[in-house]
Amino acid sequence: MVLATIYSFLSLGNILLLLLLLFILHYLMILYEFRNMPPGPRFTTLPILGNFLSLDLKAKKLNDAFQSLKDNYGRVFSIKLGSYKFVMASTPDAVKEVLIKKSADYAGRQQTYSLMEGTLGGKDIIFGNYGPGWKLHRKLFTTALRQYLSDIPLIESRVNTQAEKLVLSMEKQQGQPFDPADCLMRAVADVICGITFGEGYDTTNPDLNKLLKLNVDSVANADLSQMATILDFFPLAQYLPIKVYERYLGPFFEMFDIIRKFLNERKRNFDPEKPVKDLITGLLHAKLEAESESNEDRTALLTNDYFINTIEDMFAAGYETTSTTMKWVLAFLVNYPKYQETIQLQLDEEVGDHTPSLENRTRLPLLQATIIEALRVGNVVPLAVPHVTLTDTTLCGYKVPKDTIVFVDTESVHLNSKCWEDPTVFNPYRHIDEDGQLITNQGNFFPFGAGRRVCAGESLAKVELFLFLSWMLQKFTFVAEEDGCPPKLEGIFNLTQFPVPYKIRAIKRKWT
């Protein structure tokens, strides 16, 4: 009887009417869900898909995929992607509000399937959500890094050892065209190996060489990463019989196995009486201290899974952003040789044929200004790791509910004519004052983020960048692969923005 009634109701007209009512109900729910939030495309929000069709899916860079939305709704807008609400902070005021003024409100991270699986349950520093575990391990990380950087002779010795290998590698090119990406990356990675695993460890170790290769491949495979990110917007995708997640997460589990091997080996040989000389030893000391204090809550957060994620964060983030920045610096200096020449004149005057050291930093302002300018124009992180609101808050007067994902568009600051004169022009002198001294804090500069989620490795990156680049520019003049063909100053975006692969020549300077 019931089935007969339902069957009699299922006429074409009634089905269309039901669908119409469902669509009206859907859009009423969308309007209610986004009430008082930044403007956005409400009536093109489709069931399940959300506003995916409003994006430019053919855009080469993620930032460009949102351009039409910025044009139509302004530079602070909101959309729905799959099951999640998103807000784009794409003005200087909005960026500063998220990163600085209300950083506590925006300190969360999205807890999507691939991020949770790829961090063993959200137990890392970069993608971990704000909470007791994240605060403890960030503090341990920054403390260990601060102790390391306070030993100036140690950090200089380790960086200089790799810098010497780097210039020897470039010298072997004998002035022929080469792609500097691999040697730059390996030099930085070897410094990170020493900091993380201890003196004597570098990528000549087969396991660490494999760890580096797995990291490099995961960063280079932008298509797979973007596909996993898109699927994350649809929680049910994890149950579908597709191989994307398996292919994306597989390398991470291999990385964790390698790190677990080193961690277990260090545990077996751990001597608490020896001073802390690397990150792993620092973590083991922290665990021993918590256990001696019978602090069960703290001890529960000092597990292998947390340690493994912290070590991987140090390794991956440590080599990737620093080597990418150096690639940008060399690309810009080949395109703007007058700055390279002036940097080398300062090096000749202040360093001569001595080994560059951190003591030379204040007397080499143009080199430091060039690094800052490359970070600004190259914009290594054009869209910072997405933030998530931990509470109901506001942005530029609009409501932003709890658990909203927020994109922070640093490019809207770094390449904004209201923040910088001729913003797309590479000009290191904008960071030098009338007395020829470096301007260290001009504002409108967020390559390392800011606030509670500021990059913990910023101080280490600055040390490495200065020492490596001063070594290279003291020994070589870098020129185009062939006359009139300097590197293209275009970026490719995955987790970071790196320059299009290029080749250059390293011409040994005559006086050296």
From TrEMBL:
Stated family: Belongs to the cytochrome P450 family.
Designated name of the protein: Steroid 17-alpha-hydroxylase/17,20 lyase
Key words of the record: Heme, Iron, Membrane, Metal-binding, Monooxygenase, Oxidoreductase, Transmembrane, Transmembrane helix
Pfam families, sorted: p450
Residue ranges of the TM segments: 6-32
Keyword Membrane: yes
Gene3D superfamilies in the cross-refs: Cytochrome P450
